[in-house]
What we know:
This protein is α/β, with parallel strands linked by helices. It is built from five helices and five strands. Keywords: Metal-binding, Zinc.
Amino acid sequence: MNYHPQESIMSKLIQLQRQEHSIIAAVIDNKNMILSIGKTTVFIDNDPTSHAEVNAVRQACKKLNTHRLPQGYWLYSTFEPCPLCSSAIIWAGIDGVVYSNNPAYRGKEQNWSFISCEEVLQKGSYIHDVSLIKDFMIDEIKDYFT
Ligand SMILES: [Zn+2]
């Protein structure tokens, strides 16, 4: 039951990105249900840490009243998680990440993935091991910034 990646989840997030004009991330529970959805609120909140992934993790942890999510929880994001978000994924005990778009298709925007998600997850694997699926359904979203 708990297998990834799931096209239905990423399709929904990509659709939301186009509607909300924000990168979208979601925490998926161990029954493959969406527990929380986050969008980027850096400007609205005047908070440089309010990235979509961090917001999704915050919401999920609040819902479950925990700082560390149970086994089998995954995070989906429409863009490669930055070093901040990749670290938050480790601290939250998330077991896997699926992301779609990546900095190669960021257009003229600054590349904030100065350390790749893969590298952060590898370096932090002694704290918590996180599986990674990159560029999932990228053809559906890679034109977004260009
Ligand atoms: Zn981030």
